[in-house]
Amino acid sequence: MQLTEAKEKFIQQWGSLGSNWGINRTMAQIHALFLINEELLSAEDVMEILQISRGNANMNIRTLIDWGLVYKEHKTGERKEFFRGEKDIWKVTQRVIKARQRQELDPMLNVLSQLQNVEADKKNKEEVEAFTKQIKNIKSFAELADSSLTKISGSEENWFLKTFMRFIR
Amino acid sequence: MQLTEAKEKFIQQWGSLGSNWGINRTMAQIHALFLINEELLSAEDVMEILQISRGNANMNIRTLIDWGLVYKEHKTGERKEFFRGEKDIWKVTQRVIKARQRQELDPMLNVLSQLQNVEADKKNKEEVEAFTKQIKNIKSFAELADSSLTKISGSEENWFLKTFMRFIR
DNA sequence: ATAAACTTTCAAAAAAAATTGAAAGTTCAA
DNA sequence: TTGAACTTTCAATTTTTTTTGAAAGTTTAT
Lengths: 169, 169
What we know:
homodimer
């Protein structure tokens, strides 16, 4: 396979993976591009390589910066902003976990907390108990997941590697 | 809060969580309904409760059955099919992991394997090496994630609890 | 203070994904 | 074998999400 073809393929696949996990396909493609690109790229470079509009490029690069997956940089003597991607796949994973934890897990935990206080009357006492019990189960599980993810996203790769290597055998 | 309101809220929140993770919102809502509903439900019940069409209900219930999150059952003396949901949140998690692993992680691993064979010529030798190295990193990481998930989705809840409890402290 | 060179925003348009419901298919009791 | 009672399919429609690009905003060198 040629390098150009391989890069293209990687970008497409990463885009489709992202898209399947609720991440904007273009954002995932831009991320893929930065994962395998060694040089600094400007917003215009990204627009051209991926054939997307200015607004689209800008908005998604912005989000990637927010997530900590892309860094802003300046070339001396150039006015324009340039960007480079975080290459370390372990750091990438940690930052994606953090972003999605705050975006999705936290709101879910909030709602689950609220749902624990349901008023019962004499007619539906048992039903309310069953509901409350199940919500409690789900909440405990979500909290365990939350702590595990927090631990993982704050650890050294080394710790992770050792732990999981032991773990999977 | 009233029970009805709480159930409604849970269904909405679960739907939105699913939707954010690339799972059809309605499918997630049906799943939520089954998570908190004690009785058997027919396709018509689901249609009515969630105000959705026959085709929609059918298709998503089918997928939930494929994933192992909902079971088909028969009431004696009734022609109609009834369904009940898997209530155990640990089993639910394991089955979701399995389904998504085969749907998304496996194809990604395949593509990454293909991408390891890129032809270099004298002009782009270094670039090809950098690319290959990065793909290799990503692939190793994806394989570690894959094994970890396989291990997790095949384990007893007890093992998982013990391991992660130790883990997060 | 100006204006050139850039970045960001956002309403409208396009694309993608989900939903509908009528029609086709299936199953089963008689 | 029939037909009633159900389930499944899929083309057309609707809804949701994404993208565009012109206009507004910002920054910086002079």
